């Protein structure tokens, strides 16, 4: 007999929502807020060399990115829960303030330690903005209309992945790296003002009891997982005391978290959600697709620079093809959901395309034309796009109304964790491959992972060709594993249940935001 949580709780009757003009402004502002948060991480990548030259601290440079990723991952589910309890408006307002405060700390930083602290603060705000913004859509639109908007919002992630580094590079070259943190202030202030005027405050006066113990244990659990993925095998050896401590801490935090959630009056991540089939299936797909997506982003630019002699900036631009596929199919999937109310088959087809694209990437070598690589990257993006919009809609249609924020946050949380673990696993595979195929050819290079095109160019033609082929061979296992991961995601997507989304509303008006 199916669990009671297998089907969504029937929501209360729709109340008068925002008028069409207000709704349009609100959704544009939500999209802008989402862009603000999602570019927070990518905008800094092209500025890292200049930051190190000014502040020093080369040993800690990876933490400039890791701190933001860690904070956004651990902060998102807690922010989602706070939005469910106290309303989206107040949480969004606070999140914008926290994000801008983090940017201010980073902008005025005079040491790498202060910069990393600012990035952590910025990440807390960014993670909250991403999940609560998407939950607002479920508040102001009925289920049938959410697909169209969620598809557009999901495409913002792909757009920011390309645009962020370009904006960062332009600002570094013109006005200095400090301005990559200040440039968001006008956008943040405008978004704050518009949200204050258009998003309704929660009128609920029911007292809530925050699950502090569960929140702390969830923070420890997610932090341990992300840190293991980012540090083990690269910064620290797997046998180091730091990694062993984290490996012991993660399962202890998991056991403690499950125990705390069973006793909590208002758990931060209700365990009943994990009994909902769509919650299980969608987040399994999110996790696995996150692994494939971030693995591709991490290694293709390196291949293009070393093997195909493409410049650093141009190599990043090749990811535009991948993001073009992601944006286009995510938007199209949202339109299909809104027009037909159907969504079950789309992630199954798209993850099959992703698996095929990953297999195609295993064939690239020094002779592969750049146009062919561009096509393969487009197919990777096309395989990822529909899973993002469908994942959010399928979760929001299945979880009870009072858990919309937590449910929405889970999609982002599992995707980021998958990305962190995938990058770590693929990085380990790639390092092993370099040690096997390239290191014997270049014994003079101490750290083969730091191989550059300039080093290869200095080799004799025969040795150069062998090294480039070895580099390609080292990447092959990465994309074979990526194809296997995508195939598992395809199987997991078949467990989705296509719940009815209701008719298309005549006036396209939904429930008010809290």
- Mean model confidence by pLDDT: 81
Tally of helical runs: 18
| Class by alpha and beta content | mainly alpha
Shape estimate: globular
Write down the CATH class of the largest domain. Answer: Mainly Alpha
Q: Topology, pairings included?
A:
Blueprint: H1 20-42, H2 48-55, H3 62-86, H4 88-107, H5 112-140, H6 143-174, H7 179-182, H8 185-198, H9 212-231, H10 241-263, H11 277-306, H12 312-317, H13 319-340, H14 345-361, H15 370-396, H16 404-437, H17 453-457, H18 461-493
Helix pairs in contact: 1-5, 1-6, 1-8, 3-4, 3-5, 3-9, 3-16, 4-5, 4-8, 5-16, 6-13, 6-15, 9-10, 9-16, 11-15, 11-16, 11-18, 13-15, 14-15, 14-18, 15-16, 16-18
Q: How would you summarize what this structure contains?
A:
It is a multi-pass membrane protein. The protein is mostly helical and 514 residues long.
Descriptive report:
It contains 18 helices and no strands. By secondary structure, it is mainly alpha-helical. It has two domains: 17-202, Up-down Bundle (Growth Hormone, Chain: A); 276-506, Up-down Bundle (Growth Hormone, Chain: A), CATH 1.20.1250. α3 (62-86) runs antiparallel to α16 and α11 (277-306) runs antiparallel to α15. The radius of gyration is 23 Å and the shape is globular. Mean pLDDT is 81; it is low at 1-16 and 507-514. Keywords: Cell membrane, Membrane, Transmembrane, Transmembrane helix, Transport.
């Amino acid at each position: 007999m199916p669990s009671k949580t297998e089907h969504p709780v029937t929501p209360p009757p729709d109340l008068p929502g925002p008028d069409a003009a207000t709704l349009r402004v609100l959704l544009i502002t939500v999209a802008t807020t989402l862009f603000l948060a999602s570019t927070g991480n990518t905008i800094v990548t092209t500025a890292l060399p200049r930051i190190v030259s000014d502040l020093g601290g080369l040993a800690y440079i990876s933490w400039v990115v890791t701190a933001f990723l860690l904070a956004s991952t651990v902060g998102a589910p807690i922010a989602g829960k706070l939005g469910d309890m106290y309303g989206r408006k107040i949480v969004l307002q606070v999140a914008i303030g926290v994000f801008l405060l983090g940017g201010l700390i980073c902008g005025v930083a005079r040491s790498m330690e202060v910069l990393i602290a600012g990035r952590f603060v910025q990440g807390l705000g960014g993670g909250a903005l991403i999940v609560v913004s998407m939950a607002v859509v479920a508040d102001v639109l009925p289920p049938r209309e959410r697909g169209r908007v969620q598809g557009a919002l999901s495409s913002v992630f792909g757009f920011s992945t390309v645009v962020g580094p370009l904006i960062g590079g332009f600002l570094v070259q013109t006005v200095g790296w400090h301005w990559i943190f200040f440039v968001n202030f006008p956008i943040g202030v405008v978004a704050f003002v518009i949200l204050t005027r258009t998003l309704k405050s929660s009128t609920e006066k029911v007292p809530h009891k925050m699950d502090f113990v569960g929140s702390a244990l969830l923070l420890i659990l997610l932090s341990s997982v992300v840190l293991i993925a980012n540090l083990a095998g690269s910064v620290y050896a797997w046998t180091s005391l730091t990694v062993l401590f984290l490996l012991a801490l993660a399962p202890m935090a998991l056991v403690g978290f499950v125990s705390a959630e069973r006793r909590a009056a208002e758990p931060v991540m209700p365990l009943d959600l994990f009994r909902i089939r769509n919650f299980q299936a969608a987040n399994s797909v999110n996790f696995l697709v996150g692994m494939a997506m971030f693995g591709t982003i991490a290694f293709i630019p390196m291949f293009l620079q070393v093997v195909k002699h493409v410049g650093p900036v141009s190599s990043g631009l090749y990811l535009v093809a991948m993001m073009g596929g992601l944006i286009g199919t995510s938007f199209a999937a949202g339109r299909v959901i809104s027009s037909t109310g159907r969504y079950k088959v789309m992630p199954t087809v798209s993850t099959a395309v992703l698996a095929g694209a990953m297999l195609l990437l295993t064939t690239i070598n020094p002779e592969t034309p750049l146009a062919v690589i561009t096509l393969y990257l487009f197919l990777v993006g096309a395989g990822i796009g529909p899973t993002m919009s469908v994942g959010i809609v399928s979760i929001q249609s299945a979880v009870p109304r009072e858990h919309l924020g937590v449910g929405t946050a889970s999609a982002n949380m599992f995707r980021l964790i998958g990305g962190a673990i995938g990058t770590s696993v693929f990085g380990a595979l790639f390092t092993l491959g370099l040690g096997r195929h390239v290191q014997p050819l270049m014994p003079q290079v101490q750290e083969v992972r730091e191989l550059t095109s300039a080093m290869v160019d200095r080799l004799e033609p025969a040795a150069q060709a062998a090294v480039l082929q070895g580099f390609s061979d080292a990447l092959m296992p990465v994309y074979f594993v990526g194809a296997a991961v995508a195939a598992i995601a395809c199987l997991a997507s078949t467990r989705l249940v296509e719940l009815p989304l209701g008719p298309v509303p005549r006036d396209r008006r939904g429930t008010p935001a809290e």
